[in-house]
Every structure is written in structure tokens, then in C-alpha cells.
Amino acid sequence: MARFNALSLLKHSLTGHKNWPEQWPEAQPRAEYDVVIVGAGGHGLGAAYYLAKQHGITNVAVIDKGWLGGGNTGRNTTIIRSNYLYDESARLYDHSVDLWEDLSQELNYNVMYSKRGVLMLAHTVHDVQSFKRHIHSNRLNGVDNRWLTAEECKEYCPPLNISRNARYPVVGGALQERAGTARHDAVAWGYARAAAARGVDIIQNCPVTAIRRGPDGRVTGVETAKGFIRAKKVAVSAAGHTSVVMETAGVRLPLESFPLQALVSEPVKPIFPCVVMSNAVHAYISQSDKGELVIGSGTDQYTSYSQRGGLPLIEHTIAAITEIFPIFSRMRMLRKWGGIVDVTPDRSPIIAKTPVPGLYVNCGWGTGGFKATPGSAHVFAWTIARDEPHRINAPFTIERFRTGRLIDEAAAAAVAH
Amino acid sequence: MLLIHCPYCDETLPEVEFTYAGQAHVVRAADPSSQTDAEWENFLFIRSNPKGPHYERWRHLHGCGRFFNAVRDTVSDRFLTTYKAGAPRPDLSSLQGDRT
């Protein structure tokens, strides 16, 4: 793997950057692997990287039905934060933020992690109480989060409308300064390049059609568009299609797949310094380094695999944004898209072993999986390699829906979680 | 935007008049106290989540206010049929002709 550094950049600049070698080879499937990972998004590629780096398991394939990073990894609004209410969630998401801190150095690939701060606006007494509860809980868990008055919010984010006459007046906000954004494509590419350099095969445009099990119930491999691939262990990290893939192994999960939409505006000069979320009007916004405003909200109400979503939701989102930021009311929106997110009943993920020996699953990230990419991949790799969960993902089992030991971030955070 | 036919109003109306109400034909046990944890899990949390025809409930919230059932293809989002609550689950093969 050619390393990126100042010298190599300078050298390649002399030839107009036309002679960079490919960052990972186009792999063809071998007959057998120690681990096959289904889904080449950030979570799957990251798991392959940590399997190779930390657990010495390099006979690994990551298989995707499309191109790598073409699913939800490339469709989210790139927000990173860890201000979750419950201890289990705080540990998981803050573990991720810890890894984001030096991910660019770790991968020798600039993922453009930007600690620009995430500001969650409070509009009502209920918001204030709920956010302060979050702040206290976060501080007990060592997660940074602090309360700002409306004036302090305005100081932190000047485009904000804090007029008392606004339809949803801003009465304050919770600020996590270590939170921010990263470039989502670079995360997938960085992990892919670093994993491939350690011997992992990345097989794109090859749908996995079924997981096969032997007479003893253990997984034996996967059927794909390029034929049967034997595998000692199979790890599914397929986001919205997890139900479909797992059903072929006879495992039914507490998941439903919904379209989650996002949209971007025309690019403008830097105007927006941080990420702002509002649960009450239900939208979130940030400005990308290219200058586009990146806007999102909740899922559509109905389950779907269409990767489109409906226009009423976009209308609702834009109405919310222009309410808080009237200056954006005449911005033109360039494009919108949808991704299919797998939602669990308690809105917390599942990173766990399954009832099938040799089969592992990392799913249920719903609308918030991107932020967790490094932490999730790290503990998922641990779970696959050791056949037991890391202490951080130990509570995120499938069995919690039977025992009732839910991690109910849906109730804890109302909307955005 | 989805256009949804309300079987009670007998009108085809925009999605914003309706709210989605989850998978249809999930039956609550007649004797809840006899249910095991696994049966409760299945009733409360496990859903079919198919990629294809899906039996689901909708409510005509900003209209007659009633719940009804529908079969919708989750790939195309096209409704194959809608029918009144309590009516038997329609046979998928009888709906295939509508799947264009």
C-alpha cells in the first residue's frame, strides 16, 4: 500500500496526480475464508480491518451486492456524537468517538473528522428537562455535554434565530463539543484500503443470496452471484437488508426497514459553523466542506426497500429548517435521496452472536449508524474473533427482546437518538 | 407521494391523510397469561419485514379515522389492494396481476 504523506503528495503532484496506484485490488472470491462479512459499508469494512489488525485474522472477505460504501455509509448526514442517555449507549457511542479522534492517522487516510460541535436545541420546558437529564447522565459517564442559554446558542451558532416571536422559540441547547462530522465516503475508502493492505478481499457487485448451514446447524458458507463460498464464520452487517439475509439462515429479527431521507442545498460560502439538531421541530443541519447545507430528519412512516421515500417528509423537514433558520428560506435544494435503515423496537443496535453457531450480526442502527462506525466495527470484530462479546457490546444482544432488558433510547430521546 | 384507497370512504387519497400502523394480522393471544417469553417476544417485537408484498395496517386519520389493511409491495411502494379490518387476508396469487 502506497502511504500518503507530504513527500508522496509532492512527488505525485509533479505528474499531475495521474499515477497513483489503485487503493485496493479488485478481488475475486476464493473457495473458502475464515470469515465472510456480508455488507461492505463502514461497519463491515471496519470489522474486517480490526479482525486483521487486532485479531490476526486476515483470511477474510467482505462481500457487497453493490459498490463499497454505496449503501447507508454514503447516504447519511455524517453526524458524529455520543450524548446518549443510558450507560450502555454512552459507553458504545463514546468508544466510537474515541476512535474517531485519531482514525485518520490510524488508517493513513483523511476521514476529515471535524469536531465542530453538535448543538441540540430546546424549545419547550419538556425539552429543557429532558436535555438537562441527558447532560447530567452524560457527565456521569464521562461524555462531554453542557447546557447553553439561548444567547450562548446564538453566539455559538450565529445564523440561529432566537427571537421570542419565533413559532418554536429557542430556550436553550445542549452542546457536545467533541461531536461533529466526518466525510462518510472517506471512512469506507479508508477502511477498505487499510483492510485490503492486510490481505482482506473486498468483493463488490456480488449479492449474497443465502446463508448455508450444515446438518449440525453451524454456518457453512454463503451462496452468492459468483457461486458458493465456504466460510467458518459469517458476519452480517447489511443494514436495511439484514432481515432478508438473516431469514435465509432461519433467523428472524426484531427489525423493520424504513426509508430515511436527506437532502443538500447548492454550495455556498462558509456560513454554518456547527451541527444543529432540533427534536421538537424535527430536523438537523450542518454545512459540508464543499459548502452544501446537509439536511435530514426522521424516517418515512411506512416500511420500504425503495431507497426513495416520499416528498411530504422533505416538505416537513424544510419547513422545520426554515423556521429555525429563516436566512435559508431562499436556498435552492440540489438533490435528495433515501437510504433503507433497519430499526429495532428500542432504537438501539444489535451487535451479537446469533442462535446459529458461527453466525454474527451487527444491525438495528436505525437512523444513527454512521457515528458509531469505528466503535461498532471494533467490538463486532472482537465478537467474531473470540466468539464472545466485548464488554461494550455485551448488552446489545438479540435476547434482550425476550428478557425485556431493553436499552430504550427511543423513549429516552424522543426523536433523534 | 403514495395514493391510498380507503376501503371505507371508497376514495383514493394522498398519503398525508393516512398514518401507517405496522404489520397487519398480528394476533394478540386469547389467553395472555399462558404465553411464554418467546411467544411474547414474537408478538411484540418480531416482524416479517419482507422485501416484496407486505400485509400492513393503515389508518385514515384525517378522514373517517378508521383502521384498515393493505397489501403493498415494499420494493415499488405500489399498493396491491386495501381491505376492511376483519376481512380475511387476501391470497397473494390473486393480486399478482396488479403487480406491474
Automatic annotation (TrEMBL), chain A:
Cofactor: FMN; FAD
Keyword tags: Cytoplasm, FAD, Flavoprotein, FMN, Nucleotide-binding, Oxidoreductase
KW Flavoprotein (keyword) present: yes
Group of enzyme by EC: oxidoreductase
Reaction(s) this enzyme catalyzes, per UniProt: sarcosine + O2 + H2O = formaldehyde + glycine + H2O2; sarcosine + (6S)-5,6,7,8-tetrahydrofolate + O2 = (6R)-5,10-methylene-5,6,7,8-tetrahydrofolate + glycine + H2O2
Biological processes annotated in GO: tetrahydrofolate metabolic process
Localisation: Cytoplasm
Positions of the Rhodanese domain: 35-79
Family of this protein: Belongs to the SoxB family.
A Gene Ontology cellular-component term: cytoplasm
GO molecular function, one term: nucleotide binding
EC numbers on record: 1.5.3.24
Name of protein: Sarcosine oxidase subunit beta
Keyword Flavoprotein: yes
TrEMBL record, chain B:
Pfam families with a match to the protein in the record: SoxD
GO terms classed as biological process: tetrahydrofolate metabolic process
InterPro entries: SoxD, SoxD_sf
GO terms of molecular function: sarcosine oxidase activity
Entry protein name: Sarcosine oxidase subunit delta
